[in-house]
UniProtKB/TrEMBL annotation:
Enzyme Commission designation: 3.1.11.6
Protein name: Exodeoxyribonuclease 7 small subunit
InterPro entries according to UniProt: Exonuc_VII_S (IPR003761), Exonuc_VII_ssu_sf (IPR037004)
UniProt organism field: Streptomyces chrestomyceticus JCM 4735
Nuclease is among the record's keywords: yes
Residue ranges with Acidic residues bias: 81-91
Function recorded in the entry: Bidirectionally degrades single-stranded DNA into large acid-insoluble oligonucleotides, which are then degraded further into small acid-soluble oligonucleotides.
Pfam families: Exonuc_VII_S (PF02609)
Amino acid sequence: MAKAKTDDDTVADGTADAAQSDGSTLGYEQARDELIEVVRSLEAGGTTLEESLALWERGEALAKVCRRWLDGARARLDAALAEEAEEDEGEGGTGEGAAG
């Protein structure tokens, strides 16, 4: 009954579940690579129901880590593009066509 956690509780910082086995925060590439191995293991079969469930849960946690990294990257890109657009607006269009 100690496993009654919500998704928000278990992955509060984006890495809690996926990092529990080694105690460190996983980067995107690490989480992705481990997720690939989990999927391969599940597809290969030959595991007990308990092992399959544990692999599936690990895969879900790793997928959340990857999704949070990608969401964060998207937010950073959007912010950078918005900032660039604001700078372009601030120039009043003087930069367009001036080089040609």
